């Protein structure tokens, strides 16, 4: 509720409560769907997933031979790992272990079933560069709070939000396009994946400004995607925890 008040100060309290209640219901449905995904044949799960905008991903791959995928903790995001089979493009996902060990074990089992390549974000640079050089898509979730050291402040729902600059740094340095891809639940066990046109990477010098501008563009695309299904985002996450340091100070 606090996060919803920060993002939507003008929204009626009753409407915030509705979104909050829906977000917890969404997490419950995610658990049910993930249990099914761990036991049912992958083909059955994939039959409930439709993809819109596949041409945007194929166009980026045809022109550049690789792509960085921007996504978020929106919809049943764990099903994106399995859904990569629908694209026919080998995929690498940069992730970090979940805080709850039992959930982490469950997610790992699902990811292993999907056949994707997993890279731990703590030592990701070399494997990610290798994946891009091999013509793979590399997916990163870019909607969580980052420390001041790891992030750059961008505007997210009208407020400064420290956001990992890793995706933008990779895109700028390797001239790889960014393709936003988000998944939404239509109803239980039925999902829609929306692939948006890629961000063109300008031929500019590797600079902090270029990284900041691209990170802002990613944040704006993510915000727009969340607004399309407010109750399917992870509102329990403290997205605005890290705030800009007062002038003259530094820190995490």
Tell me what you see in this structure.
The protein has nine helices and nine strands. It has helices spanning 2-7, 13-39, 42-46, 54-64, 79-83, 101-114, 125-133, 166-174, 208-227; strands spanning 49-52, 67-71, 91-95, 117-120, 137-141, 151-156, 159-164, 178-187, 190-195. Strand 8 (178-187) and strand 9 form a beta hairpin. The chain has one domain (13-232). It is globular, with a radius of gyration of 18 Å. The strands form two sheets. It has a seven-stranded mixed β-sheet, sandwiched between helices. Strands 6-7 form a two-stranded antiparallel sheet. The mean pLDDT is 90.
Tally of alpha and pi helices: 9
Shape label: globular
Describe the main β-sheet briefly: 7 strands, mixed
How many β-strand stretches?
9
Write down the overall mean pLDDT: 90
**Approximately how much beta-strand content do the residues carry?**
15-25%
Essential attributes:
7-stranded mixed β-sheet, alpha/beta, 9 helices, 20% strand
Précis, in short:
The chain is an alpha/beta fold and 252 residues long. The protein contains nine helices and nine strands.
Question: What's the SSE blueprint?
Answer:
Layout: H1 2-7, H2 13-39, H3 42-46, E1 49-52, H4 54-64, E2 67-71, H5 79-83, E3 91-95, H6 101-114, E4 117-120, H7 125-133, E5 137-141, E6 151-156, E7 159-164, H8 166-174, E8 178-187, E9 190-195, H9 208-227
């Amino acid at each position: 509720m606090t996060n919803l008040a920060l993002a939507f100060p003008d929204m009626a309290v009753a409407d915030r409560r509705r979104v909050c209640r829906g977000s917890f219901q969404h997490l419950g449905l995610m658990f049910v769907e993930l249990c099914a995904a761990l036991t049912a044949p992958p083909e059955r799960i994939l039959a409930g997933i439709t993809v819109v905008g596949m041409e945007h991903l194929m166009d980026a791959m045809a022109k550049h031979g690789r792509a960085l995928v921007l996504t978020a903790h929106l919809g049943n995001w764990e099903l994106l790992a399995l859904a990569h089979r629908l694209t026919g493009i080998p995929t690498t996902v940069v992730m970090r272990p979940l805080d709850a060990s039992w959930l982490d074990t469950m997610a790992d089992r699902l990811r292993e079933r999907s056949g994707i390549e997993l890279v731990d974000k703590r030592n990701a640079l070399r494997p990610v560069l290798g994946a891009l050089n091999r013509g793979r898509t590399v997916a990163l979730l870019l909607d969580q709070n980052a420390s001041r050291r790891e992030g750059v402040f961008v505007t997210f729902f009208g407020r400064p939000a420290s956001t990992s600059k890793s995706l933008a740094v990779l895109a700028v340095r390797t001239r790889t396009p960014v393709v936003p891809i988000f998944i939404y639940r239509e109803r239980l066990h039925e999902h829609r994946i929306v692939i948006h046109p890629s961000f063109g990477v300008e031929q500019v010098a590797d600079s902090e400004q270029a990284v900041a501008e691209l990170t802002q563009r990613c944040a704006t695309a993510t915000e727009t995607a969340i607004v399309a299904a407010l109750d399917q985002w992870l509102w329990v996450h403290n997205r605005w925890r890290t705030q800009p340091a007062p002038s003259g100070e530094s820190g995490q």
